[in-house]
């Protein structure tokens, strides 16, 4: 590993000049967080944002820009390491493990370079737990949901699959682009956890499928922002009041196709022993969202750990089989794994 002081800064490319069909997303500016009035206004904006688009920006989120820049530099330094070094960190993908370095397909079949390749996404996933905790019996919460309910599902001292991810999408050559059937780096999907945070990404490629219209819109980079989306666990816990957002990663516009796209993302997931049942909440009851797909179908309700393990295993099997072969497979009774067009 290079010594920490030798890590060179990561330079972001300029934003595209193309006039893309951008998503119109709300910005939740946290500078007003902390007063009763500010919090009440933010809560309203947040409810509106998660219930309409499911994607939104957050600014003034309290992480200094130098720290964000440092993470991009670390991601870059990691991908510059020799392949033998990175191969030491390949997880047991076939069994739903994911932390470490992941290539697009099984390492045995991975290309030995990291250049352009169909769906050549390299993922380095860093768990942020201090120490693993042995499995605990599932805990079935809870009286009425308190204001800090979601915070408590993501406590630092419990075991979960939250992680920071450095993700490198290799650029495509013109020949490879010509061979692409769907023009995508990654197919339409939903994420597993509660929310995903994408640190400002100047290479336009992320596209959001709008709930209301089914149309795909481009996510525009906004300075100093996180682009946040709602995910599967949040949908389960709210009985579908909040939907898991469908998104995909497309080929960038022509003026950004010459670069690899390095992403920095945080995937937030509730602790593994949380049972994914609908929260007992007056807000949900008033709005009529009292059962998620497991409860409505009379299925056993999985814990977050069970759901994560099975969905990741399915994703991995699907990646090996290519394309949309395993679409629609029931991966947990009551929940189908799907890629969306
Ligand atoms: O790279 C991006 O912009 C999004 C990646 C993504 O959707 C994912 O890794 O789940
Ligand atoms: Fe995603």
- Number of H- or I-type helical stretches: 9
Shape annotation: globular
Poorly predicted runs are 105-120
Secondary-structure-derived class: alpha+beta
Spatial separation of the terminal alpha carbons: 40 Å
What oligomeric arrangement do these chains adopt?
A: single chain
**Rg over CA atoms:** 20 Å
Question: Level of helix content?
Answer: 10-25%
Overall pLDDT level: 85
Strand order of the largest sheet: 1-2-10-7-12-5-4-3
Report the top-level CATH class.
Answer: Mainly Beta
CATH superfamily grouping:
B-lactam Antibiotic, Isopenicillin N Synthase, Chain
Question: Element order, helices and strands?
Answer: EHEHHEEHEHEEEEEHEEHHHEE
Beta-strand residue fraction: 15-25%
Q: How many E strands?
A: 14
CATH fold category name: Jelly Rolls
Family: Belongs to the iron/ascorbate-dependent oxidoreductase family.
Pfam families: 2OG-FeII_Oxy, DIOX_N
InterPro entries: DIOX_N (IPR026992), IPNS-like_FE2OG_OXY (IPR044861), IPNS-like_sf (IPR027443), Iron_ascorbate_oxido_reductase (IPR050231)
Domain Isopenicillin N synthase-like Fe(2+) 2OG dioxygenase: 186-267
Plain-language structure description:
The protein has a single domain (4-139, 147-271), classed as B-lactam Antibiotic, Isopenicillin N Synthase, Chain (Jelly Rolls). 24% of the residues lie in helices and 19% in strands. It is built from nine helices and 14 strands. It has helices at residues 36-52, 65-79, 83-87, 149-152, 174-179, 232-237, 282-287, 293-296, 304-321, and strands at residues 27-29, 55-59, 100-102, 121-127, 163-169, 184-189, 195-199, 206-209, 216-218, 225-230, 247-250, 261-268, 330-332, 335-336. A hairpin with a 6-residue loop joins strand 8 and strand 9 (216-218). The longest helix has 18 residues, at 304-321. The protein is globular and about 55 Å long. It starts with 26 loop residues before the first strand and ends in a 5-residue tail after the last strand. Mean pLDDT is 85; it is low at 105-120. 2-oxoglutaric acid binds at residues 167, 191, 198, 201, 206, 247, 249, 263. Residues 121-146 are annotated as: Disordered. InterPro entries: DIOX_N, IPNS-like_FE2OG_OXY, IPNS-like_sf, Iron_ascorbate_oxido_reductase. Residues 186-267 form the Isopenicillin N synthase-like Fe(2+) 2OG dioxygenase domain.
């Amino acid at each position: 590993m290079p010594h920490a002081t030798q890590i060179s800064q990561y330079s972001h490319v300029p934003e595209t000049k193309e006039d893309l069909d951008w998503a119109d997303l709300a910005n939740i500016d946290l500078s007003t967080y902390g007063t009763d009035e500010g919090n009440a206004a933010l809560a309203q904006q947040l409810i509106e944002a998660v219930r309409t688009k499911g994607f939104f920006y957050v600014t003034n989120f309290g992480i200094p820009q130098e720290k964000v820049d440092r993470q991009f530099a670390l991601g870059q330094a990691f991908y510059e390491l020799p392949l033998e070094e990175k191969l030491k960190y390949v997880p047991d993908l076939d069994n739903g493990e994911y932390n470490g370095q992941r290539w697009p397909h099984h390492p045995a079949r991975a290309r030995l370079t990291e250049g352009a390749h169909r769906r050549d996404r390299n993922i380095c996933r860093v768990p942020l737990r201090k120490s693993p905790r042995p499995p605990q019996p599932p805990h079935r919460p809870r009286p009425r949901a308190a204001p800090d309910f979601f915070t408590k599902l993501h406590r630092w001292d419990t075991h979960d699959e939250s992680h920071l991810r450095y993700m490198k999408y290799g650029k495509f050559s013109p020949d490879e682009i010509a061979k692409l059937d769907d023009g995508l780096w990654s197919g339409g999907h939903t994420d597993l956890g509660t929310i995903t945070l994408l640190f400002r990404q100047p290479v336009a490629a992320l596209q959001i499928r709008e709930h209301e219209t089914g149309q795909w819109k481009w996510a525009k980079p906004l300075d100093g922002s996180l682009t946040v989306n709602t995910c599967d666990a949040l949908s389960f816990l709210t009985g579908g009041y909040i939907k898991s957002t469908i998104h995909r990663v497309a080929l960038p516009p022509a003026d950004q196709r010459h670069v690899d796209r390095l992403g920095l993302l945080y995937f937030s997931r509730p602790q593994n022993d949380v049972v994914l049942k609908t929260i007992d909440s007056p807000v949900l009851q008033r709005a009529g969202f009292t059962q998620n797909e497991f409860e409505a179908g009379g299925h056993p309700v999985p814990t977050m750990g069970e759901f994560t393990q099975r969905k990741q295993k399915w994703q991995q099997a699907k990646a090996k089989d290519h394309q949309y072969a395993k679409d629609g497979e029931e991966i947990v009774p009551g929940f189908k794994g799907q890629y969306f067009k």
